[in-house]
Amino acid sequence: MSDGADHDERKRQLERERQAFRASPSYDPSPAKFREQHPEDQFTGSSGVLFEQAMAQTRMAICLCDPHLEDMPIVFANRAFRELTGYPEDEIIGRNCRFLQGPETDRSQVAKLRNAIREEDVTVVELLNYRRDGSTFWNALHVGPIYNERGQLLYFFGSQWDVSDVRAARAEELYARDMARELSHRMKNMFSVISGIVNITGRMRGVESEAQEINERVQALGRAYETTLDEASSGTIEVGQSIRAVLEPYDLGPWKLNFRGDPLKVPYGVVSGLGLTLHELAANATNYGAWSSEDGEVCVDWAEKTRDGRRVLEVVWAEMGGPAVSEPPSEKGSGNAIIDRMVRYGGGNIEREWLEQGLRVCATYPLENGSFS
Fold first, then answer.
1. What DSSP element (H or E) covers 21?
2. Which residue, 35, 56, 247, 301, could crosslink 316 as a Cys pair with Cβ 3.0–4.6 Å?
3. Rounded to whole angstroms, how far apart are CA atoms 264 and 314?
């Protein structure tokens, strides 16, 4: 087949593709109309078919404005643009894009847009725009120049994206963070008040040592919550952050306290039981366990596990290098009772092993509703 015949066959193929596309239910005639009205700028051959299909099928609202006409009117708007704004084509073509602005539109963003057009630059702004029915939407508007092969400015291209949901989510997040900061401030005050009451009561009743013991537990609980409040609005926290905050006062230097857990989000309700458990274990290690010895150290590990088909947080406390432990020591004080009660209250389970190298405790907390035995 000759080159001329190949060319004719290609033209017929393009025409068949064009006719098939125009016969489809989703066909938008506005791109073809624009090409017919601007023959000097039209794409040729397969590029024309691609232009029509791309402009008609994209879900991105798109328009072209002619900077050579007075007031730079819109000369093309695709179906997505019409659906986004609610305006029919005959109420869009020939008008400047400012007709979508209203009384609440940020004038500084409009000025930024005008400056980009004046400088033939590319810019993105977020504008509050108004639909035909008066309703508003947040428009992420991308604007940029289009040049011909000679470098001459032909049009300004504009794409619109409705980001109202994104803006709303952003506003909710900012509100949640503000509330978290306020809650953090109030909780710090609350723990300070509780500590003050405990101290005064202890002095009045002559039980200063008992008051100090209670205060240490209150402070541990406060540390567990304090560093995680910014995440409270999501309903989950990064558990490693909370563990480190509780044990920070007991970090006696390099290698004395080691953390081995991975980044893990857990329900916010796990914090109180876990915080008090770690405090009691740390106090015991200081008085009787690994940290009562110069060479003693503690390793804290945590991970998500599956038990009885359910997701749980497993926290392992392992002491090494402390005094030899051959059998369970006699119960001293209320520390172990508090640990057991707090873990059970959270629906969890705790196991202790008095190994030759030191105490090993494994506490598990459910990451779903309910408890396990």
1. helix 3-22
2. 301
3. 11
User: pLDDT, tens digit, for every residue of 12-53?
Assistant: 665 665 555 455 555 576 666 766 666 665 444 444 445 556
Residues 146, 48, single domain; the answer is: yes
Looking at residue 343, the DSSP 8-state letter turns out to be H
Q: What secondary structure letter does DSSP report for 132?
A: T
Cα atoms in the 13 Å half-sphere on the side-chain side of 163: 16
Q: What is the spatial order of strands in the sheet that 358-366 belongs to?
A: 257-259, 297-307, 310-320, 358-366, 349-355
Name the amino acid, one letter, at 41: D
- In terms of Cα–Cα distance, which of 31, 29, 26 is closest to 43? 31
Domain-terminating residue out of 151, 166, 181: 166
Model pLDDT for residues 174-222, shown as the tens digit of each residue: 766 666 666 566 656 656 666 666 666 677 777 777 777 677 766 666 6
Rounded CA separation 58/114 (Å):
26
Order the strands of the 61-65 sheet from edge to edge. 74-77, 61-65, 153-162, 136-147, 123-130
Eight-state DSSP code of residue 329: P
Residue in 43, 34, 42 with CA at minimum distance from that of residue 77:
34
Q: How many domains does the chain have?
A: 2
Residue-by-residue DSSP string for 232-298: GGGTEEEHHHHHHHHHGGG--STTTEEE-PPP-EEETTHHHHHHHHHHHHHHHHHHTSGGGSTT-EE
Same domain, 51 and 174: no
The C-alpha atoms of residue 300 and residue 240 are separated, in whole angstroms, by 10
Adjacent-strand bridge partners of 259: 300
Q: Which two tokens stand for residue 4?
A: 């001329």
Beta bridge partners of 134: none
> What is the C-alpha separation between 108 and 256, in angstroms, rounded?
56
Here the contacts of 174-179 (C-beta below 8 Å, separation 24 or greater) are 176/233, 177/230, 177/233, 179/233
Phi and psi angles of residue 217, each rounded to the nearest 5 degrees, phi first? -70, -40
What is the Cα gyration radius of the chain? 34
